[in-house]
Design goal:
Elements (H helix, E strand, L loop, with lengths): L1 H9 L19 E5 L6 E5 L10 E7 L8 E3 L4 E2 L13 E6 L7 E3 L19 H6 L2 H15 L5 E11 L1 H12 L5 E5 L6 H14 L5 H20 L12 H6 L5 H5 L5 E6 L11 H7 L5 E6 L7 E2 L8 E2 L1 H12 L1
Parallel strand pairs: 3-6, 3-8, 4-7, 8-9, 9-10, 10-11
Antiparallel strand pairs: 1-2, 2-6, 4-5, 12-13
């Protein structure tokens, strides 16, 4: 929740003073819809149509999990779809973000639940079009279509296509880079290269070590996980969301990305916080690259940063949001 509040309220608002936000253009975005089977692919470029006359490199940001619209407004302001301040870098890059299937590209904050998720007003669940496409390969194909379109635009410098993703978006970004030779740089942050199911085991182990659960309870939870995994893989093509994420979502995002990452020959920046249990396996990625004598990996660990790049402070002090500082380092790395 803290991350979402900062993402939508503390990162710079995008509206002009006194201007009502009724469409993405009012917030400084250009909106596009690309034809696709079943549903168009909608995307935003963080430039007005006039600025699209300038030929620049592309910075494609891939969202993490949850059915959150890319652009949220309260009518008076629109809030950045990026978890970092992009304004200092807009002279060099067109910043692009893709809407998830079945979700409005822009919505009023009052249409969202407490976690900023967009739910069908009748079923109180994510729209079926979202649930049906909420798996790894669908997101990779969606973003492939976007890159194919971008490189054909006269305002795009196709010699530099940066893909950046965090958490679930990091996994999508890695597989996207492996599928599209047009991608020239990959920034992978707060991701788990071992897959989603690895995270569940780590949480149980952490709770046991901290004394939150007994060793016996930990064993029960691990056995319960195995039962769930067996059921999920037996129903791996199901998009039913009765029990939360569908089996297709869970199994697709539980495939290891290690081989995918080491297959890349482009520069890769992997960034993670040492206080982030989810991304802990990032620390062992250099082993995979050393084994293959590859030197295109840059690993950056941030001390005591959590999954959302809040720096945890001692003595109960409020955590500090450090994403903008980290992003500045990533942009220097791109140069």
């Amino acid at each position: 929740m803290r991350y979402l509040l900062l993402l939508f309220w503390s990162v710079a608002t995008l509206s002009l003073f006194g201007q009502k936000i009724k469409r993405p253009e009012d917030a400084g975005f250009s909106a596009f819809a690309l034809p696709a089977l079943g549903d168009s692919i909608r995307l935003l470029v963080a430039d007005t149509s006039a600025a699209l006359n300038q030929r620049k490199a592309v910075f494609l940001f891939v969202q993490g999990s949850l059915p959150t619209p890319v652009l949220i407004t309260n009518g008076e302001a629109a809030y950045s779809p990026f978890p970092f301040d992009i304004r200092p870098y807009q002279n060099d890059y067109h910043f692009v973000v893709v809407s998830k299937p079945g979700l409005p590209i822009m919505t009023h904050v009052n249409a969202l639940d407490a976690q900023f998720n967009y739910l069908d007003p009748d079923t109180k669940r994510p729209p079926k079009a979202y649930s049906d496409q909420n798996y790894l390969d669908a997101y990779v194909q969606q973003h492939q279509t976007v890159i194919d379109w971008l490189v054909q635009q006269p305002w795009v410098d196709a010699s530099k296509i940066v893909v950046c993703g965090g958490s679930q978006g990091a996994r999508i970004g890695a597989h996207l880079a492996a599928a599209k030779p047009a991608v020239t740089h990959l920034i992978y942050f707060s991701g788990n290269p071992n897959g989603r199911m690895d995270e569940e085991v780590r949480r149980i182990q952490r709770d046991e070590l901290l004394g939150k659960i007994s060793p016996e309870a930990a064993v029960e939870k691990l056995e319960s996980l195995q039962t769930y995994w067996k059921w999920a893989f037996e129903n791996a093509q199901s998009t039913d969301v009765e029990q939360g994420d569908s089996p297709k979502t869970s199994t697709s995002f539980s495939v290891s990305s290690r081989a995918c990452l080491t297959s890349l020959n482009i520069p890769i920046l992997v960034a993670y916080g040492t206080a982030d249990l989810t991304a802990a396996p990032c620390a062992t990625l250099p082993i995979d690259f050393f084994r293959l004598n590859k030197t295109n990996l840059t690993l950056k660990a941030y001390p005591n940063y959590d999954h959302h790049f809040f720096k945890q402070n001692p003595d109960g002090k409020e955590p500090e949001y450090k994403m903008d500082e980290a992003f500045k380092e990533w942009m220097l790395w791109l140069k």
